[in-house]
Amino acid sequence: MVQVEGILAAVKAEAAKIDAYMRADLSRLQATTDALLLEVLDYGLFNGGKRVRPLLVVLSARLCGHSGDDAYTLGCAFEYLHAATLFHDDIIDHSATRRGKPSVCRQFGTVAAILAGDFLHALAMSTVGRLAGDKGLKIFCDATTGMVDGEFMQLRNAENHKLSEQQYYDAITMKTGLLIAAACEVGAIYGGGTDPQVKALRDYGVHLGYAFQIIDDLLDYLGNPGRTGKMVGNDLVEGKMTLPLILALNQAEPREKERLLTILGAGGEERAACVGETAALIESAGGFRGARAQAVAAVESGIAALQVFSSGSTYERNVLEGLARYVLTRDK
Amino acid sequence: MVQVEGILAAVKAEAAKIDAYMRADLSRLQATTDALLLEVLDYGLFNGGKRVRPLLVVLSARLCGHSGDDAYTLGCAFEYLHAATLFHDDIIDHSATRRGKPSVCRQFGTVAAILAGDFLHALAMSTVGRLAGDKGLKIFCDATTGMVDGEFMQLRNAENHKLSEQQYYDAITMKTGLLIAAACEVGAIYGGGTDPQVKALRDYGVHLGYAFQIIDDLLDYLGNPGRTGKMVGNDLVEGKMTLPLILALNQAEPREKERLLTILGAGGEERAACVGETAALIESAGGFRGARAQAVAAVESGIAALQVFSSGSTYERNVLEGLARYVLTRDK
User: Fold this and answer.
1) Mean of the pLDDT values across residues B187-193?
2) Closest approach of chain B CAs to the CA of A5, in angstroms?
3) How many domains does chain A have?
4) Residue B293: CATH number of its domain
5) Is residue B208 within 8 Å of B265, Cβ to Cβ?
6) What letters, b where the CB count within 10 A reaches 16 and e where it falls short, cover A170-199?
7) Distance from C-alpha of B18 to C-alpha of B44, rounded to nearest angstrom
8) pLDDT tens track for B54-96
């Protein structure tokens, strides 16, 4: 297994290459595109993102035997769609900041954020259609419509204190998992993977998405705001039911369960005052341990899926394995 | 030439067929899509639109020799993209109504309007990629990015009282023309048209787009609010430079020109009080006549482009010709 430092170095080098491809795209657009639009795109795209989705595209393509540079162009499309989603999400969630600087909608206004997102959408779809064909485009577009559907589901799930584990998994699949899985699957298709290889990479992506989102939800209660850049307990304040809380409600003693439900039934401001108490209740009911165990299991399932690649491309497989394990250690 | 009544009957019958295809799409989505999202889509899509873009797709495909029903499916994709644009535009322009009922953003909120637009975007792109291939998808996506670019250009052009005719044409091409031309071009490609046929239909679409937008701009000053559903002089109040005004500024006597510039230099409220006076100044400087003459010339150019279809498919060619002439007579 490649060590964590090795993984991070590999990821960093690839991310730099992806950034270079995106910069080249923007340069090409310069002659024909409005200067303000370009400024918005530049601001929104180059914000220190880790480029996980493009990286998954490139590694999946290579693992299936394709090493052409177009894989980077295809990877960029996934970053464009991801960025478009963030531009629009920040409007929807009234988020003032993103990675420590003003969000696109805060910096340039709602109009620019909507339009720049639409622009990236179309740019992304066009690229995927060109490089990954009908089949790749359908997966990509299904991931997009699924993400939208997931946002509506989230609106509906808010304040549903009876959310089941299954509903939680459905929601995180749509929110995060679909695009991550699509990056792996489309990369594999582009790379000429066999059906079992494509399926394996999709499975890997689905489980990586689970782990990623569960850790995110754990960090919301347990993270260091100095590292995450987010307030502790945001999800609770917003009435969002995440896995640690769902597990705690399922496993808590009657009195603790009742107390948790009372807190959830209170207004956002009152809940904000109870973040510490809620975290203690989740901890004592085993909600954090249980959620973490599920994240670990997801990572193991994802890694197990890669076993079809028994020979060759050991490097790419190692990086994908390392990336999955790294998700469990992240603190921001 | 098919008479206007015949054209309208043909258009109406085709629009009903397109509506049926869209309803079938929504039915198919029902099992897997959030109920509120479906409600938003239903509300926003079935609002009495004339389905001009899908109609152009279907007629162009048929004119090039293809009569399969998939042309309707492809046509729907253009209506989806058009609707997505309107959902987002109504947020951007703070429009409370659309075709006499509350706009999507007013009825369901900004969040739903952004997300439903994104959903339709992806649905449209996926369909076009599947049915019209890489080449069709690129044209479709270029039209989309061009429309966004045009919105930015419009932001920049606002209150630019020196806007030239050329800049006006560039702006309306991006705002309206690209998607109309794309409907014709992609329909022709899907229909298996030869290169000259594809080019002819694109040219037709470009000129139809010009005529459509110029008439729109004339109706803004000269329309009957009871028919158009819009206040007279909106464009002036918003400081939007349209062709009648641009021509008037170019052709007016110095004193009249100065007066027009004074009105333009005033605030929106003051301009609102001067709509009648401005219309009279445009009229006396020949701005309306000149703009109308350009719309007529655009229609004639569009019709002339169809001459490559010298034999066969007379019906489709007649409807396209009639549609172009009809644009000149519309009063809403």
Assistant:
1) 96
2) 38
3) 1
4) 1.10.600.10
5) no
6) bbbbbbbbbbbbbbbbbbbbbbebeeebbe
7) 15
8) 999 999 999 998 878 899 999 999 999 999 999 999 999 888 8
- The rounded mean pLDDT for chain A is 92
Q: According to the model, what pLDDT value does residue B129 have? A: 96
Closest to B122 (Cβ–Cβ): which among A111, A123, A144?
A144
DSSP structural state of residue B94: T
pLDDT in tens, B153-171: 888 887 788 999 999 999 9
Indicate yes or no: CB of B148 within 8 angstroms of CB of A115. Answer: yes
Cβ of B149 and A111 within 8 Å? no
In this prediction, residue B10 carries a pLDDT of: 84
- Gap from B8 CA to chain A (nearest CA, Å): 33
3-state secondary structure chain A: CCCHHHHHHHHHHHHHHHHHHHHHHHHHHHHHCCHHHHHHHHHHHCCCCCCHHHHHHHHHHHHCCCCCCHHHHHHHHHHHHHHHHHHHHHHHCCCCEECCEECHHHHHCHHHHHHHHHHHHHHHHHHHHHHHHHHHHHHHHHHHHHHHHHHHHHHHHCCCCCCCHHHHHHHHHHHHHHHHHHHHHHHHHHCCCCHHHHHHHHHHHHHHHHHHHHHHHHHHHHCCHHHHCCCCCHHHHCCCCCHHHHHHHHHCCHHHHHHHHHHHHCCHHHHHHCHHHHHHHHHHCCHHHHHHHHHHHHHHHHHHHHHHCCCCCHHHHHHHHHHHHHHHHCCC
B114 contact A CB<8A: yes
How far is A130 from chain B, CA to nearest CA, in Å? 5
* Domain span at A298: 4-329
Nearest CA in chain A to B171: A34
Residues of chain B neighbouring A140 (CB-CB closer than 8 A): 126
Q: Which residue has the tokens 């690229």?
A: A127
User: Is the per-residue pLDDT at B118 higher than 90?
Assistant: yes
Chains A, B: CB contacts under 8 A, how many? 138
A155·B111 Cβ contact <8 A: yes
